[in-house]
Amino acid sequence: MPAKRQARFMIDAFLRTLQQAGPLTQASERALREAFASVIEVHRHGAIPREGDPTSLITTMVEGMAFGYKTVPSGQRQILSIVMPGDICDLSSIFFPQLDYDIEAAMDCEIAVAKRQTVIDAIAAHPDIGRALWWVSQAGEAISREWIVNLGRRPAHQRIAHFL
């Protein structure tokens, strides 16, 4: 992966996303800032990571945009998610040992990274972090349900409008 640099205030958007579930304590916020203290630059079309990669890191978008997708045997891709600043790129990495989809940078991006075990330890030590990540997970599930309806039942012009 490309060179790392210090994040400082880089994860503010991520913290705002988590705080939609309720306030985080100062100790929880500090633990997350320490966990996500490094930022990696990923160039357009770069992997953040690939399907099957071990999930030793958890990533959150600092700057730029990426998309999650699955590739079918014909080589075509189906976009599953769009990752914007403040979004955690690979929330399932907390629970599963390998990623089951690809994440690709749609433009040059900055990604804050944390060791998987560090995030797990922060969740154990700070229940409000666990609650916030659960909320983010459930919000992602709601978005996935809308995508399923969009792909399966809406006419083309409504699918494009929904996407935009």
Which helices and strands occur, and which strands form pairs?
Layout: E1 4-6, H1 12-18, H2 26-35, E2 38-42, E3 57-63, E4 66-71, E5 77-83, E6 102-105, E7 109-115, H3 116-125, H4 127-153, H5 156-163
Antiparallel strand pairs: 1-2, 2-7, 3-7, 4-5, 4-6
Helix pairs in contact: 2-3, 3-4
Brief summary of the model shown:
38% of the residues lie in helices and 24% in strands.
End-to-end Cα distance? 31 Å
| Overall morphology | globular
Major β-sheet strand ordering: 1-2-7-3
Q: What does the oligomeric state look like here?
A: single chain
**Total of domains:** 1
Radius of gyration over all CA atoms, rounded: 16 Å
The residue fraction in helices comes out at 25-40%
Low-confidence sequence ranges: 1-7
* Topology order in helix (H) and strand (E) letters: EHHEEEEEEHHH
CATH-derived topology = Jelly Rolls
Mean pLDDT: 86
CATH hierarchy: architecture = Sandwich
Class of secondary structure makeup: alpha+beta
The name of the CATH superfamily reads Jelly Rolls
- Biggest sheet record: 4 strands, antiparallel
The CATH class is identified as: Mainly Beta
Q: How many runs of DSSP E, i.e. beta strands?
A: 7
Number of helices: 5
Tell me the strand percentage band. 15-25%
